[in-house]
Every structure is written in C-alpha cells, then in structure tokens.
C-alpha cells in the first residue's frame, strides 16, 4: 500500500483523520494520528469554548488563539508529523480561522460545509500550506477548481469526497436525497479524479470519506479508485480522542436505530445520535438561551430561535452531558465495541508483518 502525498507533505499511510468540531479532534487526537503516520486534523470550529482565552464575549479572537495553542500542542506530540486544520466555510469568521491556521503552522487546510471559493486568496502568503476542499459531488469539485484556477491560478492539492449516506456531522446534500440509495461514493471519487485529469491534466489525490471503519473498507476504497481515506467515527473511540469518556461511551452503547439525521440550525442536515434530539432543543428553549457568539454565517437559532444553539449543544456532549448534548457520529458508530488506541487502529489497517515485508 502506498503512502499519501498532498502538496509538499507526505505521510507513510493513506489516512486522514477527519476534523471533528468543538474539540472532538483537537491536539491530542490529531497529534497522535500524525505520530502514527497518518494526517491529523484539528477541527477549528468551536475551539473557543474550551479555551482559557474565552471570556464570554471574545468568541472569534479566542477561537483563533485556541487554534494556535492546539497546533502547538499537536506538534509537541508529533514534531515531524503532518498536521492540518479543518475549517468550515459555514462559520462566520472563516477568513480569520484560515489565517490563524496558517500562522499556527498547519501543513494543510481541509475545508467543507460550503464551497471554499476564496481559500487560495486567504493563504496566498503561505504557499506550502496544501489546500483540500471537501465535496460531495463532481459538480462542486468542478466549481471550486474552475474558480481557483481563474481567480488565483491555483489548483486543489487533493479533494475529499464525503459520502452523505454515511459520514458524521454536517452533510453536503439535501435531506430528502440522503439514504435513498441514489448516491454512489466511488463513482463520485472516480468522476472527480477523471475531471481533474482530463480537464486540467492534474494528478492529485482524491480521498474517500464516510463509512470507512476497518481494513476491508480501506482496501475496498483503494480498489475503487480512491488514493486514501478520511476517517472520523472510528477515531472517536480511541483513548486519544479529545472528547469526554461519556461521549465515547455513547458510541459504544448505540445501535443502528439510534443513528439518524437531524436538521442543524446552519441549514444543513447532520448525522447524529438522535434519541435525545427533543431534549437538545428543549434545553435552549427552557433556558431561553440567546445566541452567545454569532458563530455561523447563517443560523436559524440566532435569527429566529429555531432548533437550538449548535455550538453549545455540541459543547455539552463533548463535556459528557449525554442528556442535552448533541452527539454527531457516522453511520458506523454502532460498530464501536471497545476503546482502542490510535496506534492499534493503524496496526489493524496496516499490519506490521506487511509493513516489514515492504
Ligand atoms: C463527531 C463528528 C464531528 C465532525 N465535525 C466535523 C467538522 O467540524 N468539520 C467537518 O468538515 N467535518 C466534520 N465531521 C466529518 C468528519 O470529518 C469525516 O469526514 C466523516 O465523519 C467521515 O465519515 P466516518 O465518520 O464514517 O469515518 C465530523 C464527524 C463526526 C463524527
């Protein structure tokens, strides 16, 4: 099995640990994935909340400061590792977050939850930072590539194709089109790859995200034309994941029926444990919580107090409140039956005997 090179950065194993917001993937998880030979991503969204920099009012400044702290801590774990940042286009301070990621030494920026049309302009002073959009369709990959070429003479260094039928967190598809058997993950991977090759003579990695749990899934993804995989859910049930033990336990305890779709106040569907979704909503209504930070560009809770404050709901689950906290997860969360280490996952995906034989 080959490693993975994205822009100027190479790792021995073709695995990206997906960014998981509000400190599910912070320094500890990302640093340990990088240490074990994958690409570790710190998710920028909502870092302010668990940080000493946040004074209740300075959400955006604290978020960026906290991101720089997390990058420093991740590099303490894996000084030579490839560590990047997941930046969501849907967050209001997208530009500030991207700049903070570059200042803090991110080697790549992986960006979805919207189309990152302006990303190359924001990172122009940091040409070594690899740029990786997340898409769910060939059309989105085309739009981004055309715009980047026209406006910035820059191409994506890789593209992540995220499957809305399986991935965790916010999803890039209309809710009525999710889970109806219409989406073909690997046809999309191959379609993006062909487009880049035929239209632009570009050979960059195309990474499959969503539903990859074990070695068989990884091998299938590679056989179907992916150059690597991005995995989220599997890395939650590790000792190194930055979430509270109760969050990880919720994965261990859940069944297939507990996993479903909810509508985020950001206007996107999301995959989560849905058994407590009424309590998640009721929490903010009962306390008449006002929008504390204005963190999203578009938010139904901020404008109309519809649904709930998503950053607070995710923060509650991260801290172990399983009654009113929102637990994002991929469709494979029910497969979790024990807490492992990041090292064990890499040894299962890439057996030591096979590595020695290479
Ligand atoms: C708890 C959780 C939080 C997530 N948060 C984010 C996020 O902040 N930004 C993002 O782009 N993707 C986010 N994702 C998606 C993952 O990065 C990843 O692409 C996806 O979960 C892959 O599917 P898998 O979980 O089946 O491996 C999240 C996923 C989970 C499970």
Describe the structure.
- It is built from 14 helices and 13 strands.
- By secondary structure, the protein is an alpha/beta fold.
- The chain folds into two domains: 4-243 and 337-357, TIM Barrel (Alpha-Beta Barrel), CATH 3.20.20; 247-318, no CATH class.
- An eight-stranded parallel beta barrel has the order 3-4-5-6-7-8-10-11, surrounded by six helices. The chain has a three-stranded antiparallel sheet with strand order 9-13-12, with no helix packed on it.
- Helix 4 links the parallel strand 6 and strand 7.
- Helix 1 packs parallel to helix 2.
- The termini are close together.
- The structure holds flavin mononucleotide.
- The site of flavin mononucleotide (FMN) has 30 residues, from strand 5, strand 11 and helix 8.
- Flavin mononucleotide binds at residues 18-21, 24, 43, 45, 86, 88, 112-113, 134, 162, 166-169, 209-212, 230-234, 328-330, 332.
List the helices and strands and how they pair.
Layout: E1 4-6, E2 9-11, E3 15-17, H1 27-35, E4 39-43, H2 59-77, E5 82-88, H3 94-103, E6 108-112, H4 119-122, E7 130-135, H5 138-152, E8 159-162, E9 169-170, H6 185-200, E10 206-209, H7 215-223, E11 228-231, H8 233-236, H9 245-253, E12 259-263, E13 269-273, H10 277-287, H11 300-304, H12 310-318, H13 342-349, H14 352-357
Parallel strand pairs: 3-4, 3-11, 4-5, 5-6, 6-7, 7-8, 8-10, 10-11
Antiparallel strand pairs: 1-2, 9-13, 12-13
Helix pairs in contact: 1-2, 2-3, 5-6
Bound molecules: flavin mononucleotide.
The site of flavin mononucleotide (FMN) has 30 residues, from strand 5, strand 11 and helix 8.
């Amino acid at each position: 099995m080959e490693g993975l090179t994205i822009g100027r950065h190479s790792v021995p194993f073709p695995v990206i640990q997906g960014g998981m917001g509000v400190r599910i993937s912070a320094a500890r998880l990302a640093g340990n994935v990088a240490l074990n030979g994958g690409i570790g991503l710190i998710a920028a969204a909502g870092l302010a909340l668990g940080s000493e920099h946040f004074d209740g009012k300075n959400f955006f400044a604290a978020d960026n400061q906290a991101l720089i702290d997390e990058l420093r801590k991740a590099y303490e774990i894996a000084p030579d590792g490839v560590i990047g940042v997941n930046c969501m286009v849907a967050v209001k301070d997208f530009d500030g977050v991207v700049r903070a990621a570059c200042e803090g030494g991110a080697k790549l920026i992986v960006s979805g939850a919207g189309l990152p049309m302006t990303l190359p302009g924001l990172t122009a002073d940091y040409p070594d930072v690899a740029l990786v959009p997340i898409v769910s369709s060939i059309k989105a990959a085309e739009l981004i590539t055309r715009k980047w070429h026209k406006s910035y003479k820059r191409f994506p260094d890789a593209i992540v194709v995220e499957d809305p039928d399986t991935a965790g967190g916010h999803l890039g598809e209309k809710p009525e089109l999710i889970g109806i058997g219409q989406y073909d993950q690997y046809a999309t991977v191959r379609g993006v790859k062909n487009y880049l090759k035929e239209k632009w003579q570009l050979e960059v990695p195309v990474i499959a995200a969503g539903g990859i749990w074990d070695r068989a899934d990884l091998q299938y993804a590679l056989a179907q034309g992916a150059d690597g995989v991005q995995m989220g859910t599997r890395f939650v049930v590790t000792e190194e994941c930055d979430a509270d033990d109760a969050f990880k336990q919720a994965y261990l305890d859940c069944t297939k029926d507990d996993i479903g779709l909810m509508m985020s106040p950001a206007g996107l569907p999301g995959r989560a444990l849905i058994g407590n979704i009424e309590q998640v909503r009721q929490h903010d209504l009962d306390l008449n919580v006002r929008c504390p930070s204005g963190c999203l560009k578009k938010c139904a809770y901020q404008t109309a107090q519809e649904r709930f404050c998503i950053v607070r709901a995710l923060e509650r689950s991260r801290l172990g409140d399983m009654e009113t906290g929102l637990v994002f997860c991929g469709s494979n969360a029910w497969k979790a039956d024990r807490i492992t280490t990041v090292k064990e996952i890499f040894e299962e995906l890439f057996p030591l005997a096979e590595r020695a034989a290479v």
